[in-house]
Design goal:
The complex is a heterotrimer of chains A (315), B (382) and C (335). Chain A has 315 residues and is an alpha/beta fold. In chain A, strand 1 and strand 2 form a beta hairpin. Chain B has 382 residues and is mainly α. Chain B has a domain of 257 residues: Orthogonal Bundle (MetI-like fold), CATH 1.10.3720. Chain B is built from 11 helices and 5 strands, in the order αααβββββαααααααα. In chain B, helix 9 runs parallel beside helix 10. Helices cover 31% and strands 23% of the residues of chain C. Chain C is built from 11 helices and 12 strands. In chain C, a hairpin with a 1-residue loop joins strand 11 and strand 12. In chain C, 45% of the residues are buried. Classes of the chains: A alpha/beta (315), B mainly alpha (382), C alpha/beta (335). Chains in contact: A-B, A-C, B-C. At the A-C interface, helix 6, helix 7, helix 8, helix 9 and helix 10 of A face helix 6, helix 7, helix 8, helix 9 and helix 10 of C.
Amino acid sequence: MLEVKNLVVEFSTGNRGEKVHAVSDISFIVNEGETLGVVGESGCGKSTTGRAIMQLVKSTSGDVVFDGVSLAGLSGSELREVRTQMQMIFQDPISSLNPRRSVRDIVAEPLLIWKRGTTEQVYEKVDRTLELVGIDPIRAAESKPHQFSGGQCQRISIARALMLDPRLLICDEPVSALDVSVQAQVLNLLESLKKQFKLTLIFIAHDLAVVKNISDRVAVMYLGRICELAPSDAIYSQPKHPYTKLLIDSIPIPDPTIETRAIETLGEPPSPIDPPTGCRFHPRCPLATDICRSEQPQLTETSLGHLVACHHPLG
Amino acid sequence: MKLRISTLTRDLSSREKVAFYVPLVWLCAVVFLSLAAPLLTMRVELKELPVVKPTPVSTSTTTPTGNTQNPGGVTNLGGGGSATTTAPVTSTTVAGTTTTSPSSSSTSNEAVTEKRLVAVDPIIPIPGFKLKPWDRSWETVKEIPSPRIPGEGPSGDHWLGTDELGRDMLSRLIWGGRVALAVGIVSVLVAMVIGGSLGMLSGYLRGRTETFLMTIVGSLLAFPALILVIAIVAFLGQDLQNIVLAIAVVAIPSFARISYANTLAAAQREYVLAARSLGASRFRILRREILPNIFLPLSAYALVVTAVAIVAEGGLAFLGLSVPDPKPSWGSMINDGRKPLTLDGTWHISFIPAIVMFLTVLSLNLIVDRIRQIAEGKESKL
Amino acid sequence: MSRDEFLRIEDLHTSFKTGRGIVRAVDGVTLSLARGESLGIVGESGSGKTVLARSIMGLLPPRATTRTGKIFFNGEELTAMDSERLRDYWGAQIAMVFQDPMTALNPVMKIGRQVTEHMIHHMNVDRDNAKQIALKLLTEVGIPEPGKRFDDYPHQMSGGMRQRIMIAIALACGPSLLLADEPTTALDVTVQAQILRLLAEQRAERNMSMILVTHDLGVVASNTDRVAVMYGGRIMETAKTASLFANMRHPYTKALFDSIPNLKNPSHTELTVIPGRPPDLVNPPPGCKFAARCDYATDQCRSEEPTLQTDGDTEHSFACWHPVGVRGKAGVSNA
């Protein structure tokens, strides 16, 4: 359904010649009806990937093919048309809603932009969708976003994204600003909406546990590259990339009987302005050798559906 | 955006409430009186009238000699005239007749039809609102029919006294408020609309538009404001319209900067991204997503500029560049009082308009502070 | 409690005046902490955990805040002190690490200056000595090449490094109590693990007490001796970390724990949710604050506020009329 081909996104920092290598040559496929999780630390390019798929940021090179249509070559109005098929939910639930407009108005906006249906039909659909995501339509009509809690705002965002009946939903850290108890509500809501509307999801987050739970396949990103792409259960049970292993081991387990695993962590992710040569993880990798420093590993399939980009895969 | 007064004063202590309501009442009074000036005060107008009964009148008793030159030559109408001092009976009363020399002691006039100074009653005369016809003759004349006492202190007849020509201070303050209002509201609105749009366009469209517009704005900012105003007024002519225009031009770049900065920040927010991903056009995003969000900071700034503009007009008047004499503005009234300062007991001629201007600007600033507090409180919630 | 009490908080209430009314952010909290002990305060946003930490420090804006209750630190009553005396405690005896290392450091001051400033003020050391101590400290908190970093500005460092600097500043005067308010929330997981380990090491080395405020039960599990779970400004349950995780008595603790997605579960496992949302602290409902979202709530829960009680295990107390889990071994209760 969606194919990302050799996508590269670079930003100039404003300093002469300095470039942020946000996304460096990534390729993957999203199948109809599946949920692809994208996980990584801040600055790994996961959000940029999501935005580049929507063509909200310009890709430096590479292409995104949606339903057989190459998005890179589309004109402004064609692009606007295609974008209605894919929608996005953003991280900050409050910032993604215009604070000066009523919630009902915000949710109606997509239909008003595209002039779909009469005013009556529009608001009938708005109310129906709001109810579906668990927001009281009467309250929505008279309230501004800041009168709702973070979790509710995220539900409103989801309602807005559903208004144009999209097929692909890109969720960019939709729950990381929410409390655990609310996070679970939103995740369950996304799961049920996905079934109901037969959506395809790209779920971007930094929390591996959350991503794993909701996704069929998970892509682990590090400094603009995908280091591992595998079915979500396999990622956890047999991580093959040392970075994936580090990521899993770093998650604090809510069980005091488990001793904190002594993980040898080497520093922090370097800046994407000047990424390391070869494998980008090598300065922090306990297994790094000379080949890692000089040669960039390619994403290769080691077992069925399990792709890893490492010279010395684990297991 | 609902900005009710009750939300502005909700969590205020009683002292803070006073500091909010008193300025608010003051500003409302200024606006109301200025707008209602023709309703409340009498003016003297020049009208062609058949002479009923020429009356010789002496003016020498009160006119100070130092003030008799008429620099603008706007009128050659003189101070002779009969005084109908009583409360208005008819809509027009004969106030004065044409004479040649203002300083002449007495002239009897035998003409049949004359251009005469006519006092026009207030449209709504309020009983007890003691504004007398000979006192508000700023429209056409500098020299007023008598009886008048220049530089008189506050009294029952003239609540705030009279100016150096014997004109009622209160009336002139009220009429002067119209200039302050025009400068403070019209020029600021013009500047806000033009500057705001420029800033929004460059902040949202970025790229070449940004470079081009911001270069213009930058060079305007770099140009000394006072010289620019003087140049505009000198070039276009000295009247209210041009003064308003000049002040607007000077204020445009700062509005552009503010709206530019706020647009940059708002454009970063995810709701703009969300609107783009919904397929909204640029114009729609500007109008529906960005404009409502930069409106509050822009209007808070507009109130500050209003205060500055009122003071700026005063400064211009001091340089003799405000509305031409004898039309009053607060600035020119302060300036007028400068001349007879040597006279005993005439301190009020400068002092009262200065106080009025001060209170108005102070009130504006107090209210801006409060609105800004609320706006920031709201903003932090968003 | 008979343990050596290093910090004792008695019936602390903190409320704010806002436009909508009075927010009871902390509503009757009693806690104690032994020397060298690490206490975790867990709660969701709005549970009052951060306000509690700041109330201990006395770091709340005085204008709109009212604070009642008593706080004893090392036998001295902090709540009775004027700000002049409190300032001797701040930084020197009690230090704080904040959530956001980006904003908690002064962006226009060099790192070295920020680390040494308090030392010079509190410990009467001269600049050169302070620098020596600071360099040692920076090494301890894991800053590579501290000599070079000493003259850097905060923006030249990564988030994790800045948090290390914050910790160095907090440790500079050798405090006996460290208040860490969500010290790792703004950091990536791999960096979080490093920072948590650093805090544990430093605590052991200095025999320092620590209050670790966090929303993450996972962080608490491996880094604290005792845990207090907060909800709606009150403590819902407090116990030794091991016994809390082994036997959750309060339905809220249990529900919170269950709503965390577990890596061990296969994907698409339906998560247990806590319905509804946290209570409004402006006009809190009577009774148990959690009653509206609780599966076990009865009329009693909605009308009467439960107090902390123990049930067998004397170190495990919970505020609930209908506790879940297993009753403690010792002790009798006739429910």
